Structures are given as structure tokens and as C-alpha cells.
Amino acid sequence: MNRRKFLSMSMSTALALPLSAWATDYRAEKPAAWTAKTVDDAITALYGNVELVESKKIIFKVPKITTTGNQVPVSIKTTIDAKTVALFQNSNPESAVAVWTVPENGIIDYKLKLKIKTLADGSPSVVRVVVQGNDGRFYTTHASVVVRGGCEG
Hints:
By secondary structure, the protein is α+β, with helices and mostly antiparallel strands. The strands form two sheets. Strands 1, 3, 5, 6, 8 and 9 form a six-stranded mixed sheet that branches. Strands 2-4-7 form a three-stranded antiparallel sheet, with no helix packed on it. The radius of gyration is 18 Å and the shape is globular. The relative contact order is 0.22.
């Protein structure tokens, strides 16, 4: 093996190792959370029977009304000292959307886009955030979204 190839492989391994050291593969460790049909079932499969505490420390922004559900902007921000942040919605066939492992002293300021649709009965979709605090508590907030054009816009 030549020196350049060895050095590039070593650097790749060194860069990937710290990320894999603290990241948790929730799909492998908690598979029932990813097949749960309701938000409550997904939260239970991920965290067990926990008490969720509504918190104003979670700043959760999502539009109340959107004309297309293809790319709905979502923003999650909090100063809660957290282990994980999880996102769920009730308009997906499976309710779990994402779980992030928060590194020590990590900054929680996430922005993403979701595909959201109106429910079959015409009611708004509900998107919920759960923050697992380092204090052992589970904090939550939620928002409703009305899609006026369906998922395809």
C-alpha cells in the first residue's frame, strides 16, 4: 500500500470514528418506533411509558397553513440540556420522522423540510417534538398544519 493511500484511509477513519462513537442507530435499536402507526405508540416504542411535559423552552416553528405539503419548513430550537430530540407526525403511515442524538454541550437549532398531508377526515396534521433532557425528563411541544392542496400541491 502506498503512503498516500494509507494516509487518506487513516484520515477517513479518524474523522468517522468520533461521529460513530456517540451516534445511536435508533432504527436498529428501536425498530418498533419506526413502524408505529400513531405518535403515542412511536413515542412509547422509542422511550417507554414516559411523562411528557409541555415546555415553552422548545421553540418550534411550522406554518399553520400551507398550499403544498411537499416541502413544509420546520424549525426546532431549544436551550434544554438534552440527550435526544425526536420528531413525529400523525399524517405519515409511520409516525416517527427523525431522532437526533445531541452531543454534550450540543446546540439544538435544527431546520428541515417535511412532507405533510391533510388527514383523511380533513383535520390538520399534528407535528410533535420530544426532547429527552439530561435531567431525565421528557419535554414536548406540538403544532398543527393545514395543507390546502394535498401532499402533491
